[in-house]
Amino acid sequence: MNPIPKSESEWKKRLSSEQYNVLREKKTEIPFTGRLLHNKENGMYTCAGCGSELFPSNAKFDSGTGWPSFDKANAGNVELKKDFSHGMARTEAICRKCQGHLGHLFDDGPTKTGKRFCINSCSLEFRKK
Ligand code: FE
Predict the structure, then answer these.
(1) Which of 10, 31, 81, 125 could form a disulfide with 5, with the two C-beta atoms 3.0–4.6 Å apart?
(2) How far, in Å, from the CA of 98 to the mean position of ligand 1?
(3) Which among 50, 95, 118, 122 is annotated as catalytic?
(4) Under-70 pLDDT residues of the chain
């Protein structure tokens, strides 16, 4: 992918408006609308902003929330940050490489990792193996 944009106007050109609202402005996509929500193919989920490899397909599970959910991330590529917006204490998941907002991490996952990465579909691309 091309070098990471340096300005918000460059980001606007690269991303769709939905992607821009999520990745750059930390908005949340409407649940059950994402293109990758029900994707079950083998491969790698990458950042829609910069192409960084974020979540392997074997980490994906159906959380019933309407957003793609993962029980682990490619640790080096997903950064975690405290997020106190909207009157809640949450952990934000961002792309380390481009600092794009992906979603949030919760500790109520159903698998043995106990983790639930709740990720906006539009912040992701999928590369089939
Ligand atoms: Fe990125």
Answers:
(1) 10
(2) 4
(3) 118
(4) 1
Tens of pLDDT along 77-86? 999 999 999 9
C-alpha 117 to ligand 1 mean position (Å): 16
d(CA 123, CA 25): 12
Distance 118 CA to ligand 1 centre (A): 16
Domain 8-128: CATH class, spelled out: mainly beta
Q: Is 118 a catalytic residue?
A: yes
Q: What residue segments make up the domains of the chain, in order of their start?
A: 8-128
Q: Which whole-number Å values give the CA distances from 43 to 54, 86, 104, 127, in the listed order?
A: 11, 34, 22, 6
Rounded Cα distance, 63 and 6, in Å:
35
